[in-house]
TrEMBL record:
Residues 118-221 form the IRS-type PTB domain. SMART domains: IRS, PH, PTBI. This is Protein chico. PANTHER family: DOCKING PROTEIN RELATED (PTHR21258), PROTEIN CHICO (PTHR21258:SF61). It comes from the Eukaryota. The gene is 20215525. It comes from Helobdella robusta (Californian leech). Residues 3-108 form the PH domain. One of its GO terms (cellular component) is cytoplasm. InterPro entries: Docking_Protein_DOK (IPR050996), IRS_PTB (IPR002404), PH-like_dom_sf (IPR011993), PH_domain (IPR001849). GO terms for biological process: cell surface receptor protein tyrosine kinase signaling pathway.
Length: 250
């Protein structure tokens, strides 16, 4: 699933000379690949070939507005912080309004989503599921981690697949990649599944805590079983001893 919301040629004003230069601009939504942002390329070809670009992190925007026509027609000003601001223009009023609404909408949407996830779903994470032959889909989805399993949900909150945590052979994290190795008793069968996420370290910690809790519960259960067996053994000896005394007295 692409995270591109809008893209096209615009004109950026250079800071040194104040010259307006044509550049390819891409607006991307918040995803596991990064925050809501603008990516500025030299041209469209550079964006398709993953060439060099400058990123403008819109999650830190302080202000965004239309420039007055006497300064520059069909232009937008974005203040990221006291150290960074950008201005770009387009060819028409309609296109300018479209860019402005799209950018503002993505900023607000990312903020609402971040608040909802933090408040209502502490064990839910936005992940990007890499393609795997044993799964019916790939791309952006939600990972839910309970005390017993890992579940993947699509954008409609419908379950895609699940893995019992106690059936995992391995799990690990490297950079922004969280990986699990499922056992043959899982619904997917054996396989290694990879998820990209900004919260990969948090996912690892959550799964690791579940594993530790399950191990502790199992150890306590075993200890209780040993205690019960020892108690029964002692009780049996005492009963035999009492029976022996009764026989002697009789």
């Amino acid at each position: 699933m692409s995270d591109i919301v809008k893209q096209g040629y615009v004109k950026f004003q250079s800071k040194n000379l104040g010259i307006w230069k044509k550049r390819w601009l891409v607006l991307k939504m918040h995803s596991r690949r990064g925050p809501v942002r603008l990516e500025k390329y030299s041209d469209e070809v550079a964006s398709l070939s993953s060439g060099k670009y400058r990123m403008i992190d819109l999650s830190k925007v302080e202000n965004i507005y239309r420039l007055p026509d006497f300064e520059k027609k069909c232009a937008i000003h974005i203040t990221v912080d006291c150290m960074q601001s950008v201005q770009f223009s387009v060819d028409s009023e309609l296109e300018c309004e479209n860019w402005l609404k799209m950018i503002q909408g993505e900023i607000q949407g990312a903020l609402i989503n971040r608040v909802c996830v933090n408040i209502y779903s502490p064990d839910s994470f936005n992940v990007y599921l890499t393609k795997h032959p044993k799964l019916p889909t790939h791309g952006e989805c939600t990972m839910e981690i309970t005390d017993t399993e890992i579940r993947l949900l699509n954008h409609r909150d419908q379950e895609i697949v699940f893995w019992p945590i106690n059936k995992l052979r391995k799990y690990g994290v490297e950079r922004n990649m969280f990986t699990i190795e499922a056992g043959r008793s899982c619904v997917t069968g054996e396989g290694t599944f990879v998820f990209e996420s900004e919260a990969s370290d948090d996912i690892y910690s959550r799964v690791n805590n579940v594993i530790k809790s399950q191990a502790l519960a199992k150890r306590n259960e075993v200890s209780l079983g040993v205690c019960n067996r020892e108690f029964c053994h002692v009780l049996h000896i005492l009963l035999c001893f009492v029976d022996h005394i009764l026989v002697v007295v009789w």
